[in-house]
Amino acid sequence: MKLLIKLAWRNIWRNRRRSLITMSSVLFAVLLAIFFYSMEKGSYERTIDNMVRYSTGYIQIQDVLFEDEPSMDHSMLVDEHINAILEDFHERIDFFVPRINHFVLAASDRITRGAMLMGIDPAPEARMNDISGRISAGSFIKAGDKDIVLAEGLAEILRVNTGDTLVLISQGYQGVSAAGLYRIKGIVNLHIPEMNNSTIYMSLPEAQWFFAAENRLTSLVIMPDNPKHTRQLAADISSRIDSEWYRVLTYEDMLEDLLALMQFDIAGTMVLLAILYIVIGFGLFGTMLTMLLERKKEFAMMMALGMKRLQLATTCFIEAMIISLAGAFAGILVAIPFVIYFYHYPVKLGGNLADAMAGYGFEPILPLSADPFVFVSQALVVLAMSIFIGMYPVYSVFRLDMVKARQQ
């Protein structure tokens, strides 16, 4: 085998220009495939990460009816039963975040807008998403504050700033009217466009008072010690919790529609990548075909001198593998620094394209994913393609007519 590999290597460089052109075509195909796949995967990872950190968390405990009919009447009381379960799983839980989420009407002196009021405990909330570091004006609320913080987009819509007062109107627990005047303490810039245009933050005790829902929550967000174990932890908590009153949801359950849309979009990208590789595959096939046509007489002479068909076919197969995989690994090596750079410094979009992405609920940037699978998957695709194309010279060698080949 060592001799066959050596022979294949020398055969490749007999026509140096053709071999380099073929390797370069594979290199650029792999480079483009990695770039596009990484860009799409990175965008979705960024969107999911933002949704998890700013909205859903990894796991939520809710009232059994709240997901289907969000209402303060379907808020839950965190009692000894819940606390005992959390204590039993404390080694697998990093921290938890209590919240009240409910719809309100927010009115300035001229404009009224529907918004989502989030009653939060500032300390665990900041630990979850570092939201206090996103303040663009004023300061963030503290535990027990009676002021509010507005998302930047909502503040622009309502034409208000720090120090201004908003009227908040809603319906509280068991039909109680909820209304109050609240001073804007700060303005925060959120990563998610939809949330940035509709979110108001209030301290949890004040939100419970506002909705007349003392000691009640609409959700208890649980952040696992290891996010990879989210499903297992959710299943274990669900097996212990009273399913008649409570429900345990993972972020995949809560973002089911978004994840389905992403999978559909990824399928479209896979079709485009498949077309790209089909084009490159025909290029490789053309190289193999040209090589066979040029070397038929050589093959016949080698077999006449005693080289077995299997050895000759193996040599041709090794040549195809070396050319394909050399181009693939070169493409991966070239792609790595680009991916790492844009992973840490994503491209920020502007103009109409940024507005269009924000309209679909995506952050207007193009981050890349540094997931090793992005690189490994392209190497596996090229490997499969090389094996498939490499079988043709093997087939041709076994079908070669020595007499006709020597006469050509």
Architecture overview:
The protein is α+β, with helices and mostly antiparallel strands. It has two domains: 2-51 and 258-407, no CATH class; 65-242, no CATH class. 56% of the residues lie in helices and 20% in strands. The strands form three sheets. A six-stranded mixed beta barrel has the order 3-4-9-6-8-7. A two-stranded antiparallel sheet has the order 2-10. Strands 13-14 form a two-stranded antiparallel ribbon. A hairpin with a 4-residue loop joins strand 3 and strand 4 (112-120). The chain starts with a helix and ends with a helix.
Describe how the helices and strands are arranged.
Blueprint: H1 2-12, H2 16-56, E1 59-63, E2 76-77, H3 80-88, E3 93-107, E4 112-120, H4 122-129, E5 135-138, E6 148-151, H5 152-158, E7 165-171, E8 177-188, H6 193-196, E9 199-203, H7 204-210, E10 216-217, E11 219-224, H8 230-240, E12 246-250, H9 251-254, H10 256-294, H11 296-304, H12 309-344, E13 347-348, H13 351-359, E14 365-366, H14 372-399, H15 402-407
* Overall morphology: elongated
Strand content: 15-25%
Q: Strand order of the main beta sheet, please?
A: 3-4-9-6-8-7
SS-derived structural category: alpha+beta
| Largest sheet data | 6 strands, mixed, barrel
Give the mean pLDDT: 82
Low-pLDDT residue intervals, each spanning 5 or more residues: none
How many helices? 15
Our count of domains comes out at: 2
DSSP strand count:
14
**What is Rg?**
31 Å
Give the quaternary arrangement of the chains: single chain
Distance between the termini: 30 Å
Order of helices and strands: HHEEHEEHEEHEEHEHEEHEHHHHEHEHH
What share of residues is helical? 55-70%
